[in-house]
Specification:
By secondary structure, this protein is α+β, with helices and mostly antiparallel strands. It is built from twelve helices and ten strands. It folds into three domains: 152 residues, Jelly Rolls (Sandwich); 45 residues; 63 residues, Arc Repressor Mutant, subunit A. Helix 3 packs antiparallel against helix 4, helix 6 packs across helix 8 and helix 9 packs across helix 10.
Length: 284
């Protein structure tokens, strides 16, 4: 049997049946939450080798390499759902988004195991048993469960209480309140006035807080929005460019190709080819 691969679904529970000795390979973009519904097996790869009993869960970041191998004697079933950070820019604040990005590269977050007795596993079991109702509600509960896997670490990533109201503290507070995608619409000069500092000082402070320049961060968020539109809609490339904040299709094409190595149109075709091949493999 070929290794099981997680279908490209977002915030949707997928049930994967594994025959004895088969493997499920972590090969999808974003974070993945995996729950062992039946059988036992082992996580093999980055993060070490760990036995996983029925009822246990793991959370795996995109960069983490590895697979789940089910028992040679019994086989098993796992339930999975995926979180893709670029789709959270319209919901999470920039500070929250940065925390999740950084967590994906930290060993203590990139691969985590939750034993069957952990409250996270119990919450998923209850959620799995009550799938009736609107899918939007289910997606919200899955997102809430994913955030809960970080425990107090996520709650504690809030900015420290300000000891003095300088530009750095004001900027941190501003970014904490703002949904990440909204930063694309912010005017830098207006932000400098709001932070009560000079544009030069804000530029230096923004780079210290965010890790890149204001312009580069806006460009990153525009490209995130553009890729999401290319992948999930049939809008023309020109319309995608305009909806993502670009004034012309030519500049959008240049920026996109410089960042990803291919034009927006070719990138969309590649995504569609991958989806078609996955659909064909599933039907066979």
């Amino acid at each position: 049997m070929k290794p099981g691969r997680f279908r490209e679904q977002y915030l949707s529970i997928q049930e994967v049946f594994l025959s004895p000795g088969a493997e499920w390979v972590h090969a999808s973009p974003g974070w993945v939450f995996v729950y062992v519904s039946s059988g036992t097996g082992y996580w093999l790869g980055q993060g070490g080798n760990h036995e996983l009993a029925t009822g246990a869960s793991i959370v795996v970041a995109e960069q983490t390499q590895g697979c789940f191998r089910v028992s040679q004697t019994t086989g098993g079933v796992i339930d999975c759902f995926r979180i893709q950070l670029e789709r959270l820019t319209g919901l999470a604040t920039l500070s929250e988004h940065q925390f999740l990005q950084a967590a994906a590269s930290q060993e203590r977050f990139a691969f985590r195991i939750f034993p069957p007795t952990d409250p996270v596993c119990e919450r998923f079991r209850q959620l799995r048993q009550n799938l009736s109702g609107h899918q939007f509600s289910l997606r919200l509960r899955l997102l809430e469960l994913f955030i809960a896997t970080f425990g107090q670490d996520f709650a504690n990533q809030q900015p420290e209480p300000p000891q003095r109201q300088d530009a750095r503290v004001r900027l941190k507070g501003f970014l904490e309140r703002m949904v990440a995608s909204e930063l694309v619409e912010v005017n830098f000069a207006s932000l400098a006035r709001q932070m009560r500092c000079t544009p030069r000082h804000l530029s230096r402070t923004f780079h210290e807080v965010v890790g890149m320049s204001f312009r580069d961060k806006q460009s990153e968020l525009r490209l995130v929005r553009a890729r999401n539109l290319l992948a999930t809609t049939k809008s023309k490339v020109l319309n995608v460019a305009l909806e993502s904040g670009y004034q012309s299709a030519s500049f959008f094409n240049q920026t996109f190709k410089r960042r990803f190595g291919v034009s927006p149109g070719r990138w969309r075709k590649q995504i569609n080819v991958v989806r078609t091949s996955k659909t064909s493999a599933k039907s066979n």
